[in-house]
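SAMPLE LOG
Freezer: B-3
Tube label: C17
Construct: single chain, 274 aa
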Amino acid sequence: MQPPSTRTLLAGLGGGVAHLAAVEALFRQLGHVPETLWPLASVAEALSLFVAGFLVAAATAHTGLASPPSGLAALLGWATYRDLATPDPTWSELGGRLVVDGEVFLTSYAGAWHVWLGLIAATAAVEFGLRREFGIADGRLRNLPSAAELRRDGRGVSAAAIAPADTLAAAVGGAFGIAVVARTAGVGVTPAAALPVLVVTTGAAGGVPVAGALRGLVAPAVGFGALVVPPLLRTTLTGGEGGPVFLLLLGPLAGALALVGVVESAIRRRLRGR
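STRUCTURE (predicted):
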């Protein structure tokens, strides 16, 4: 992969500013939280929103992948819609700290930026693998491995590419696991020794569909989108109970997704052999 160009960096800069400005404008327009909790009132939160927008825009400009910006826009749009459809929360002070009675989805969106980046990284890797496999506008992809580097004789990943493909899947899965578990750790997990286990189970659930997509397998990605993403969004945006248990159960689910991928691969080989 080529290093990022000036065009890529400028696109990232524009994306970071646009993302921060959009979230700040929504906070001001909805008025669901005190001004002290608006993004620009906190250097750390403003920087995190800028970084999220920067990375998404830069990744798109550098690679031509469509899922990063569309995914971030969908997440922000969903959080905004839920805030509009939810009764206004009630804020009060308790022990010198602000507490809220009700749900504020935009606040959760802003605080979970690293979760969104992990999820977007997984979906982007899946998009890349499937577009290469099925030739879906793959001519528009840039600075990414070619189909020849990922496949051999149209029958799967070549021996020379197995290590890079698996490394990519492990890296994306690891990033996804760390991002999601970091959010869960922020609200408290007992015992703390369970956190590494949760990183492994969550990372496996994110890495399996990526590994499958790099081999042209669709079923693991579909399972990930249907069984992992919805409860993850619900838990992250609402802070609902059961987060650690859900993440622990992602381990067996990752095994099931891998098994589904093996079955799909076997069926496709049999169909090709007819």
